[in-house]
Amino acid sequence: MKVLKFGGSSVARPERILGIVDILKDYYASGDHFTVVFSAFGGVTDSLIEMSRLAAAGDDRYGEAFQAFADRHQEAITALLPEGALRKETSTKMRKSHDVLKNLLYGIFLVREASPRTMDYVLSFGERSSSYIISQVLQQAGIPAEYLDARKIIRTDKTFGSAKVNFDKSYEQIRDYYAEHSKVQVVTGFVASAKGGLTTTLGRGGSDYTASLIAAGLKADAIEIWTDVSGVLTADPRRVKKAFTIPRLTYAEAMEMSHFGAKVIYPPTLMPALHSRIPLYIKNTFDPSFPGTKVSEESSSEDEAAVRGISSINNVALLTLSGSGLFGVPGISARLFGALAQKSVNIILITQGSSEHAISFAVQPSDSDLAKKAVEEAFAYEIDRGVVNAVKMERDLSVVAIIGENMRYQPGVSGRLFQALGKNGINAVAIAQGSSELNVSVVIPKEDENKALNALHEAFFLSDYKTLHLFIVGVGLIGSTLLEQIRNQNDYLRSKLGMEVKVVGMANSRKMIFDEEGLELDTNWKDQLMTKGDDADLAVFIGRMRDLNLSNSIFVDNTANDKIAGYYAGILDESISISTPNKVANSSSYLQYQRLKSIAAKRGVQFHYETNVGAGLPIISTLQDLLDSGDQIRKIEGVLSGSLSFIFNNFDGTRPFHEIVREAKEKGFTEPDPRIDLSGKDVGRKILILARETGISMETEHIELKGFLPEGAMDAPSVDDFFSVLEENTDYFTKLYASAAEEGKVLRMIATLEGEQASVGVQAVGPDNPFHGLSGSDNMVVFTTDRYNERPLVVRGPGAGAEVTAAGVFAEIIKIGKFLS
Ligand SMILES: NC(=O)c1ccc[n+]([C@@H]2O[C@H](COP(=O)([O-])OP(=O)(O)OC[C@H]3O[C@@H](n4cnc5c(N)ncnc54)[C@H](O)[C@@H]3O)[C@@H](O)[C@H]2O)c1
Ligand SMILES: N[C@@H](CCO)C(=O)O
């Protein structure tokens, strides 16, 4: 025998009921013995409460509410049963039954009172109506079904609203009734009766309870709870998109999950069946072939995930009793919790450190003032004497919990929990873990709840992929190339690295656009940005990124803008990592550079800027590796400008200088403003950053910059004017080239750092110079160190260009993603 239960959502509309009829026909055809318990049609219990409330308040609109209730059931009958005798019989029976309800409501209206006893009777009409109608529909479908009013079989006391079951009597009645009735019994959930035939109800989860009692009474083989979700999921799917069905849970795990708000089942009411060790299946009415979740006493094997689910309580208040007067005094917690019990305050979580200096406990926010008062009254004497502090109350908190019986066998689970929270900048306000190790609960700020659930889900359910949420400012040359690379690489990232990159926010200097689910990166993205985007506003962009508060958020600055750099400190402080090719932040004051590094370290987030020097070449990371491994830098020499390298490698006097500069710009080698390259400022910034990486507190003005441009070039008010000046000075540049060529030399813009001295300037170098043979947009950096002394360490390759630079930024995004694992 199986006991099936269908909840309100499964019978909310006639077409859903027809789906259930199909499911039951399959059971019947397969020869299974079963009985079915139904809840009221979805929303009906609430409507019965509402019409009673109106009637008790003397509001005659209760009549309309009643009529809607009656009509809904008649409409269901018409929709579910063809015209004929059975429909007529069903309709008449319902009308008679509903007349009783109408009279009852009128009585409530007259006496202006709906006592719990009356309410139980009123509410019983929901289950009685749904079950009766469905029993008739089943008959129509060829199943020999029979309506069973559970008041005949389940006996309770008279605690109306949440009656206590008389198990022995109920089991006896269940057994007797089923022994005499061989048809498929269609049972009203939730309702029962007390001595004298008084109608009672079973409280929260009542229909589950009915199924459980019948299963225990009949010693059934299984209980099936049919609902509108595919079993118990690893987390609330409304909050965690990647949540998936847990195939197996122990009773204890299911209990923990449900206490934390996974309202699929209500295990306390299932206790009778659980005591009889009857396995329980949670199945989806809308996807009947899906296996769902099996809850039984079989614990998961050790090779299955230790953490079975992640759950949360959305809103709690945390109260803390602290003070020296608590230490070593027996009976403190008895007094504390006794005082709370007296006021019927339910405690959600308790924690006390072994210093015994403070006891914290979480309660429902609605209980918090009462709890604070109760505890302060109980400890008034100690508080007066100053040995115990006034109760501290923190609001707007949530509890997130990881759940699983096998956690007890595995060290490192809580390590992973706290790492996932920490890397996402989520503060653990309080922590609780019982010695059963079935549940580790962490109290966190409420605003971080979704982020925490997603971060924990990614940390514990590795079968899934991790999602990085990108916020990209600057979608010009580098930014758009980066977007293309992300689009092309996403499948590979998913399959090989278990990572998915979603661009959630995007902005250029004019527009910005967001999509929490990830913006489409097809060829249309620019149109979308320009036509659907809002006017760009950096502060708003960053505020939105902060408010979305998504796990694994990364900010990418692909601009050359100086204002954006001013936001980095705040972004890092929000525990959001940054990757940027923009050199402005690191080449502003040394103090600012230091501050950004400190904030990143303090917050445990990543600040990456490899592309600040040498585009995609591993220059900064090589330098950091040398330093980290204890090497001493003696000298750094480099051609650090891709555009100047390209210009000097291609300028052979046959074409005017300005044409080659223009070509460098068109090829995407120059800065958005090429004057920054040609002036040597860009190279200056790069050697400054390298100097700072070695630990020197250098400022821009400490760099000796020997420019090579003719006088007045840098006074040009615009880029176009600048090109005009270059053109006017064609001869000047040709001579510059010729004088080097006469000596068999070439021109190179070389940056040098030796000791604490840095210089940048154009030099004419001969074939014996390592920089002589460069080509294309090559950069080359020569590190002379204690270890690389006789033969220096050289990094060489293209030092500018969209593909290599964007790839450098992309690589950093992946690096941050791996760090966040
Ligand atoms: N081109 C290269 O080879 C190379 C190599 C290494 C580093 N970089 C650096 O990459 C960065 C971008 O260079 P690019 O060539 O892509 O420049 P670009 O001019 O093509 O793009 C800059 C983008 O930034 C946006 N932007 C500017 N100010 C903004 C603001 N206030 N708010 C929002 N968006 C803003 C622009 O609208 C544009 O989308 C620069 O910092 C540059 O130094 C470039
Ligand atoms: N404009 C820069 C880009 C790389 O930082 C250059 O020419 O090197």
TrEMBL record:
CDD domains: AAK_AK-HSDH-like (cd04243), ACT_AKi-HSDH-ThrA-like_1 (cd04921), ACT_AKi-HSDH-ThrA_2 (cd04922). Coiled coil: none annotated. The keyword NADP applies. Keywords: Amino-acid biosynthesis, ATP-binding, Kinase, Lysine biosynthesis, Metal-binding, Methionine biosynthesis, Multifunctional enzyme, NAD, NADP, Nucleotide-binding, Oxidoreductase, Sodium, Threonine biosynthesis, Transferase. It catalyses: L-homoserine + NAD(+) = L-aspartate 4-semialdehyde + NADH + H(+); L-aspartate + ATP = 4-phospho-L-aspartate + ADP; L-homoserine + NADP(+) = L-aspartate 4-semialdehyde + NADPH + H(+). NCBIfam families: asp_kinases, PRK09436.1, PRK09466.1. In the N-terminal section; belongs to the aspartokinase family. This is Bifunctional aspartate kinase/homoserine dehydrogenase I. It comes from Neolewinella aurantiaca.
